[in-house]
Amino acid sequence: MNKSAPLFAIKRRDLLKAGGALIVNFGFPAFASAQSRTPVAGPPDPEQIDSWIAIHQDNTVTVYIGFAELGQGCSTALLQVAAEELDLAMHQVFTTGLDTHITPNQGGTYSSSAMRRGGPQVQRAAAEARQALLQMASRQLRSPIDALQVTEGVVTNGSASVSYGELIGDQRFDIAFTGTAPLKDPSTYKLVASSVPRNDIPLKASGTYHYVQHQRLPGMLHGRIVRPRGQGAYKDGIKVLNINEASIAGIPGARVVRQNDFVGVVAEREWDVVKAAQQLEVTWELPDNLPGNDDLFRKMETGMTNERVAVDEGDVSIFSDAFVNSEFKATGPYQAHVPFAPNCALADVSGDGVLVMCSTQDVYNTRTSIANLLGLETENVRVQYHEGAGTFGHSCWDDVAQAAALMSSLAESPVRVQFMRWDEHGWDTYGPAHIGKAKVSADSEGKLLSYEYEGWQHHWSLIETSEQSAKGTPAAEWPPFPAQQINPLTLGSMYDTDNRYLLNHHVPGLDYLKGAWLRSPLDLSFAFVSEQAMDDLAYQLGMDAREFRRQNMSNYHWLDVLNGAAEAANWEARPIAANASTQGVVRGRGIGVGTHLASYGGAVAEIEVNTETGEVRILHLYGAIDAGLVVNTSNVENQIIGQLVQTASRMLYEEVTFNQTGVTSLDWNSYPIIRFEQCPEVTPVIVQRLDETPSGAGEEVMAAAAAAIANAFFDATGKRMTMYPFTHERVLAALSD
Amino acid sequence: MPELTINGAAISTDAAADTPLLYVLTDELQLQGARYGCGLAQCGSCSVLVDGVEIRSCITPIGSLEGKQITTLEGLASYYAAATGTDQQASTPLQDALVEEQAIQCGYCFNGMMIKGTELLLSNPAPTDAEIRQAMNGHLCRCGTYPKIISAIKKAASKTVVVNAMTGKEELA
User: Fold this and answer.
1) Mean pLDDT by 10-residue block, N- to C-terminus, for chain A (737 residues)?
2) Residue A448, SS3?
3) Are A177 and A47 in contact (CB under 8 A)?
């Protein structure tokens, strides 16, 4: 028996008695039932139905879901899927917090995967449970299964009935998850493909939702990390030369916790530890190894790189002799996740085991990382997910979880660590910068003849700063993976041509800033370059931008998102830049398509450019998504709106700034994001496909919208932007070219 | 030992006078409305009303707040009812509208959105689009929910009740 299980069970009871809000994630009425599962080091066996579904005596059902609620509504949508297959009403289904001692391992909540990977798993588990329940009901009611009907978890043969709860309430199914149970016919769906209101929203509106920042552990100390303001080169990490501990002597109870170059402070009161972290005098070694913004792209392009041909089909040399061709090079900056609230984690490291509460998007992966950090077996580490502020990729959630574990271990006390604003802004794993070069050509009829793209960027960072500084683990990048480099999915797959060439220049990333996936990773940059080159072909041909794309597409998914966005915008055909001007305030419109890994996005932008001040206003964005089956239409509508607004923010305002020593964009003034007064009108368009499986709806409109904004700028002014964000200076420079 | 009035209740604390109000609310009173976002008064995460005016609790020392009425999200429905002379409900019209519009994604910034939006509706019960954007401009959202917040404020405005000074009767704004 695993010795850590009873420990945690006892701890949890103590906490509840103490009135702490430790494990309550959603405050559902049936949460107590959900906790009837004894916590045991997971993951629960995915081959057993009991790992997924528990039926309670009151005819409610707990669905154990391995995906993180990030504000995208997946905890509601996955319950819709389960309720649909089980013939339950939404008020009968509940879920529980993500927890390595409770919930199955469905992999991380990455790449819009909750519905894409999680939807079918939950659906098949629910169908299998339903099949078993009907078999039980058949025996009890002495009726063949075909003669049974289920409404809200009550099975009837027309004369007698029995509820799920009466059949199996709070007992185990003890059946294998074979995945062979019949699934419902999509044409009979009642809950799936509708806009069921989200479970979490009323709690979030009333202020009673418990974010990770609200969690408390008995007897805990408050902790803060102490690092240089703004990271330097990844390989250099953090180097402490001297710490003057006397500099915080006047702060009650404040003390330094340190392991090699990992430095933190702890205190009983939060304000004391905030003051201590700012007051502690530390002398750092601050190498000046970074290129800074000014030299970034030169260094990336001219330094040593690793080349890999991703696609080589046909013969792209046709480019030179084509009726029209376009060669377009442009760049995208480092951009930051910077969740609205900095990341926060709590840890209790004791002799018997470790409890970590944090906002990781992958509890099992974080458990492994914490176990490695502390030299423990994974089953002695329990990781719970608690929602923080929307992160849209890998922000500092692993870093802060490691920091909390280290500080708890060093302070020999439970510790809550909250990153400060400058920690989160300065020590993020940023969406990497990119240089792209597209070469495309077409014949006189507008048929695409060749598509070439080469791009420079580094990979994502593998080792967190807390581990790097505490244990001296060398910086390292992720191994090659499609989403972090040039890949045929996002580059050119929407257009038909026999001649393609894609070249990836991997820039070794250790000399640069830390990197990781930021919503629609690299896709914005790819589309910014690629779709402007395509637009230029249409411009040279005197063609309408939508028509040119339409006639080079044959895939119905792409056509539907292109047309969906265009029709929402009342797009009328005309040559690009027909009314372009560099005088006064000018308007333009643009169109674009893009993807992330699976789904399809199309967008139209209407913008206004003040050619005297360089100010760009995005007036209206239309975004269409084809994500296969959309389980919850309201959720996807929100996802599209969020993507459109974020894209406007990233195209106009967001850029990580850094000099040779480190990052200098450390707050909302130095790293501005879009505000109310700048927010465009938005029109979301959903392409619903009841007969397909969900393919993920969290990212795909962003690349399309970025492209549409860039193309609208050209339509308005007749000038191409070669770098975003579109600052006033860059706009004025482009206009004077 | 500073004495504070929070949601109508007298609170005494042994926190130092220079302690920002936010840390008293979150750590001593375990309130969940105001919450840390930046500590720099840049984002609106920690907003509360002080004598009816929205302020940033992360930079406001408690020593400056004695004798003032502090309203947090937890007391907002009660404050709204008193300010409009209406019966107290469990939530404000703006909170209801945010739920109806399914406006919230992660929801972390919504404390500030609800505090500031309520301040706006109480001073201007029928704001235009431009007035909403201007009033809310100091409140950031990372999820991109601005369009739905604007819709919700308009919806709440249509339900905001004011008392007609002439007749003494409740009317829609």
Assistant:
1) 30 29 27 56 92 95 92 93 97 94 89 84 96 97 97 97 95 94 95 94 96 96 98 98 98 97 98 98 97 98 96 98 98 98 97 93 96 96 97 97 98 98 98 98 98 98 98 96 89 97 97 97 97 98 98 98 98 98 98 93 98 98 96 96 98 98 98 98 96 92 98 98 98 96
2) strand
3) yes
CB contact under 8 A, B35 and A418: no
Q: Are residues B44 and B108 in the same domain?
A: no
The top-level CATH class assigned to A213-287+340-426 is: alpha beta
CB contact under 8 A, A390 and B73: no
| pLDDT of the residue at A571 | 98
The CATH code that applies to domain A304-336+430-736 is 3.30.365.10
Residues B113 and B71 grouped into a single domain: no
**Long-range contacts (CB closer than 8 Å, 24 or more residues apart) made by A43-47:** A43/A100, A43/A103, A43/A104, A43/A105, A43/A364, A44/A102, A44/A103, A44/A104, A46/A104, A46/A105, A46/A177, A47/A176, A47/A177
Number of domains observed in the structure of chain B: 2
- Residue A1: the pLDDT is 28
Question: Domain holding B106: CATH number?
Answer: 1.10.150.120
Q: Where in chain A is the domain with CATH 3.30.365.10?
A: 25-207, 213-287+340-426, 304-336+430-736
CATH code for the domain in which residue B13 is found: 3.10.20.30
What is the domain extent for residue B121?
76-172
User: How confident is residue B168, by pLDDT bands cut at 50, 70 and 90?
Assistant: low
CATH class of A25-207: alpha beta
Average pLDDT of every residue of chain B: 94
In angstroms, the CA A207 to CA B17 distance is 27
User: A392: which chain B residues are within 8 Å (Cβ-Cβ)?
Assistant: 142
Using a CB-CB cut-off of 8 Å, the residues of chain B touching A204 are: 104, 107, 110
Q: Does A218 touch chain B (CB under 8 A)?
A: no
Q: Which of B24, B42, B75 is the last residue of a domain?
A: B75
Q: How far apart are alpha carbons A15 and A21 in whole angstroms? A: 8
Q: Is the pLDDT of residue B170 over 90?
A: no
The confidence score (pLDDT) of residue B161 equals 64
* A:661-700 residues touching chain B, CB 8 A cutoff: 667-669, 673-677, 679, 681-682
Q: Give the containing element (helix H, strand E) for A326.
A: strand A324-332
From chain A, the residues in CB contact with B147 under 8 A are: 641, 645, 679, 681-682
Run of H or E residues at B149: helix B146-159
